[in-house]
Amino acid sequence: MNPDGAQIERTVLSWRRTLVSLTVVALLLARLAATHTSPPVTIWALAAIALVWAGSVALTRRRTRRIATPIGRTLPALVVLILLYCVTGTLLLVS
């Protein structure tokens, strides 16, 4: 087994874990802003949260795009990650 391949996979997985953590924090902050602030403050807070989250997604994509991994291994992980975002967002906003 090539140790470089394992290092590449660990790096990609760590960037994905970081993005999942940032997504959960962004959703929690959005829920907090929507329930505990006045409407003008809520709009600005949601815009700031969305901007920081979008920057994090762009940074993660840029960092992981430079790393060469086979598409057969990353596509299922990407689908699971997107489904996890949807379920987490729904649970946080509905409850």
From TrEMBL:
Organism encoding this protein: Dactylosporangium fulvum
| Record's keyword terms, sorted | Membrane, Transmembrane, Transmembrane helix
Q: Which InterPro entries match?
A: DUF202
Taxonomic lineage is: Bacteria, Bacillati, Actinomycetota, Actinomycetes, Micromonosporales
Q: What is this protein called?
A: DUF202 domain-containing protein
Q: Has keyword RNA-binding?
A: no
Tell me which domain of life the UniProt entry assigns to the organism this sequence originates from.
Bacteria
Q: Which residues form the DUF202 domain?
A: 4-67
**Localization (cell):** Endomembrane system
**Lipid bilayer topology:** Multi-pass membrane protein
Q: Which residues cross the membrane?
A: 43-62, 74-94
